[in-house]
Specification:
- Strands 2-3-1-6 form a four-stranded antiparallel beta sheet, with helices on one face. It has a two-stranded antiparallel ribbon with strand order 4-5.
- The protein is built from three helices and six strands.
- By secondary structure, the chain is of the alpha+beta class.
- The radius of gyration is 16 Å and the shape is globular.
């Protein structure tokens, strides 16, 4: 049997905005809540070989990866909201209906509240 050398991009998610304390084992345990995990990959910097603050997680199926995006995006880990998106997304092909700038918010409004509020109207692709 040939060994699999490449990730299945359709079944993979990109997990960003991670704290330095987030280990591969911890990410595995979090992501397995969404479905069977095949691999967690930690890219390292080319020059410094240091952690970059993100991981890739490959699931057994694209459906598991889709589910992980739905339930894990913006979940706080060590006080920072994780950004979980499909790895196969080609941003140029996304049909973005609008870009919104939201300001003058109460200090108690955080990214999670904004995400939950606007997610009711459709998929969100970026929340800065």
């Amino acid at each position: 049997m040939a060994q699999k050398n490449e990730r299945d991009r359709e079944a993979s998610v990109h997990i960003g905005n991670l704290d330095d304390r987030a280990t591969d084992e911890l990410i595995w345990e979090l992501m397995v809540q969404a479905g069977p995990v095949v691999n967690v990959h930690l890219p390292k910097g080319r020059v410094t070989h240091s952690m970059q603050g993100y991981r890739f997680c490959e699931f057994q199926s694209a459906e598991d990866a889709d589910y992980a995006v739905k339930i894990m995006n913006m979940v706080k880990l060590f006080g920072k909201p994780m950004r979980v998106n499909k790895s196969a997304n080609d941003r140029r092909l996304l049909d973005v209906g609008a870009k919104l700038l939201i300001g003058n918010l109460d200090p108690d409004v955080d990214k999670k509240l904004l995400f939950d509020t606007f997610a009711a109207f459709g998929p969100l692709y970026n929340l800065l």
